[in-house]
Amino acid sequence: MKRKKSASICIDCLDDEILKKRFEKYQSTECAVCGKSNSPSVKSLILAKISRKVILDYFEIYDDIYPGYNGLSLSKVVGSVIGCDNLSFCDLVSSHLIVSQDSSINDEDFFKEDQEYSKRTIPFESEEEQEEYHIARWRSVELSLTHRQRYFNDDAEQFFKMLFEVIADATHPTLLNGPIPAIIKKHKAGLELYRARSFKNREEMEKIFTNPNEELGAPPKEVSQNNRMNSMGIPLFYSSLEINTCIAEIRPSIGDDIAVGKFKITKDLKFLDFCGLDLPLSLSKDSYFRDDYRTRSYFRAFLSYLHNVISQPVRPDGTGYVVTQAMAEYLRYKHEEKFDGIIFKSVQAEKGVNYVIFNELATVCEMQTPNWRPSFPVEFVDKKPLIYKVGSIKYEYNQKSA
Question: Are 105 and 145 part of one and the same domain?
Answer without folding.
Answer: no
